[in-house]
Amino acid sequence: PTQIKCTLLDHHLNVVEGMASVSVSAQLNKAVRQQYMSLPQGGRCQVTYVWIDGTGQGLRNKTRTLDQEPKSIHDIPEWNFDGSSTYQAEGSNSDMYLIPVAMFRDPFILDPNKLVLCEVLKYNRLPAESNHRARCNKIMEQVKEHCIWFGMEQEYTLYGVDEHPFGWPKNGYPKPQGPYYCAVGADCAYGRDIVESHYKACLYAGVNIYGTNAEVMPSQWEFQVGPCEGIDMGDHLWMARFLLHRVCEDFGVILTLDPKPMTGNWNGAGCHTNVSTKVMRDEGGSSMFIEDATEKLGKRHNKHIELYDPNGGKDNLRRLTGRCETSSIHDFSTGVANRAASIRIPRHVGQQGKGYFEDRRPAANCDPYSVTMIMAETMLLDPEDHDKEYSYEDYMLGKEES
């Protein structure tokens, strides 16, 4: 009996230790919450406004009631928030505007409730410094006749609230990389419940999610969004990120987009970006237009690196080392089916002579608006128009600076 009690006690302690990395909120009684979620709303609608904060990486949200379900983005009113609490304004002049730009269904409190992605404007109704959507939308309007498509592969890592990779031994490391990519099994796949819940949430919300898989490092996963045309790429990826943060919150686990979450011989996290234009997708697209596009990208390698993480390339410097399936941040390269190249041409594209290419340089924490903007600008605008400066007024009015 004593031995049995000790065994049960050891098991209990192991369970408690295993739960220690999960947030306290995740351990609340969800059945009680569901009792309230099933209450009728009296015909009214909850709308959650989502925006990017002053760090350029964090997401914020708050909710209001509308008297009826909005049928389009135009039915959702502008709102405001305290920018001094989101690194976007000083307390003496803190009001910021939320401008709805994309509407999605709410998978957490269900229909008729909505999630709405917003641009942020300052007190003078000019874009906030972290609002890269305004510039991106300007470029996408200029190149819209090219029907540019993007697909972005968002890698991410799951952490416990103790900032230790989810599922890793408390004092040590898991087996070396090798058995984890696209893996199955409790000893190889950590956090699949989160991944599958996020996938369903995206489908319900209307996010254009393409797929998902376990990545090379344990507790690291990837989801893909696209193909999306123009500005929609950034809208859908940012909302997919918000949904993943919310799902992780429910499970009590932390999502990190750090490009190199673990030092050493562990893969980093990127946001590989696939791109094509109408002529690339047509017969003969590879021989002429894809090669032309990649040549242009090579000439502006340093400019792209500056915009491929929110810290001007400093985050990617830890990741793009030329090891762990990356190219060197200092060099530009292309290759068919080469995952150590800056630009990878998929093998089937090389064989068929048409399709898309993959830019493997963007970091996991990149702003998709900045990435897609600079790619479209480099590939499709005259070099004399590259880096052309626009005033904030021109951003909003859609006119070039005179």
UniProtKB/TrEMBL annotation:
List residues of the GS beta-grasp domain.
45-125
- EC number(s) recorded for this UniProt protein: 6.3.1.2
Please state where this protein is localized: Cytoplasm
- Pfam families (alphabetical): Gln-synt_C (PF00120), Gln-synt_N (PF03951)
Q: Which PROSITE patterns match?
A: GLNA_1, GLNA_ATP, GS_BETA_GRASP, GS_CATALYTIC
GO cellular component, as recorded: cytoplasm
Q: Which reaction does it catalyse?
A: L-glutamate + NH4(+) + ATP = L-glutamine + ADP + phosphate + H(+)
**Entry GO MF terms:** ATP binding; glutamine synthetase activity
Q: Which UniProt keywords apply?
A: ATP-binding, Cytoplasm, Ligase, Nucleotide-binding
Per UniProt, residues of the GS catalytic domain are 132-402
Give the record's GO biological process terms: glutamine biosynthetic process
* InterPro entries associated with the record: Gln_synt_N, Gln_synt_N_sf, Gln_synth/guanido_kin_cat_dom, Gln_synth_cat_dom, Gln_synth_gly_rich_site, Gln_synth_N_conserv_site, Glutamine_Synthetase
- What does the similarity note say? Belongs to the glutamine synthetase family.
Q: Which PANTHER family match?
A: GLUTAMINE SYNTHETASE
Q: What is this protein called?
A: Glutamine synthetase
Organism this protein belongs to: Neogobius melanostomus
